[in-house]
Amino acid sequence: xxxxxxxxxxxxxxxxxxxxxxxxxxxxxxxxxxxxxxxxxxxxxxxxxxxxxxxxxxxxxxxxxxxxxxxxxxxxxxxxxxxxxxxxxxxxxxxxxxxxxxxxxxxxxxxxxxxxxxxxxxxxxxxxxxxxxxxxxxxxxxxxxxxxxxxxxxxxxxxxxxxxxxxxxxxxxxxxxxxxxxxxxxxxxxxxxxxxxxxxxxxxxxxxxxxxxxxxxxxxxxxxxxxxxxxxxxxxxxxxxxxxxxxxxxxxxxxxxxxxxxxxxxxxxxxxxxxxxxxxxxxxxxxxxxxxxxxxxxxxxxxxxxxxxxxxxxxxxxxxxxxxxxxxxxxxxx
Length: 334
Description:
Blueprint: H1 11-20, H2 42-53, H3 57-61, H4 88-98, E1 100-110, H5 111-119, E2 129-135, E3 137-138, E4 140-144, E5 152-156, E6 160-164, H6 168-171, E7 176-177, E8 182-193, E9 227-235, H7 236-245, E10 254-258, E11 264-269, E12 276-283, H8 287-296, E13 306-316, H9 317-326
Antiparallel strand pairs: 1-2, 1-8, 3-6, 4-5, 6-13, 7-13, 8-9, 10-11, 11-12, 12-13
Helix pairs in contact: 2-4, 4-9
InterPro entries: DUF2045 (IPR019141)
């Protein structure tokens, strides 16, 4: 890719090249005219990977995580045997995802607020309670055992990417649905890092005054240094019904897997079936929680406060990569 004496391209320039050759992202059936010669060229992706994550100026100056991931072409071939066994295209996208910064927002909102948001898409969401936490992208899935020991088992997740919250029980201990009008909301935002190089800033920082990656030189549109990759919500009644019945009455929206303890797993699908959220749901027995629920409840049905602790968010890698490169819609704000 580089000739003798040529300067190493910036991450901004490299990602601009990647965008031109990312027509295959998210396509299960590839037409011959869709795939460019460069997009199928392993040497191109090897060179981009090397310049972006190994030899590039930004990767040396930034205090990036030095852990790199390699995707194998065949399951029975080890990467160490030969670099020709590496799928460099997928490896580049995976590391772009892994070296980007993310935060998850868990909030309790009223159904009326969500309805107002649907009417006016630019209306900020006001929450009754909110927690924002940094999360990390991983090609491995963390399976939590919902018992007193809270054992953890790690299994491969790729081609899905998992964002796990190890301390979910303590982090979201106060996230309790205490009224039938309330909804449980989850947002995943990408914020900074490898997916957001600026045009002239060698530190890749979105907090700088430089133009970020999303500048389209033809239309001069500037991409936000914050992207919402996942947004989903469920009402109290949906959670309650799934919790009571032990199975979903809402098709692909909710399902519950019972554990041996008092806490159940609730799986929530994103809009259009995109992505999955795993939540630990338990009934709250504290007297003050029941008192608060009784004071606000307008239903004849017994009100059970439900504590909802987010355990993980899972998304296909191609959806994340596509959004990091091309998404232009403004982020959701809580």
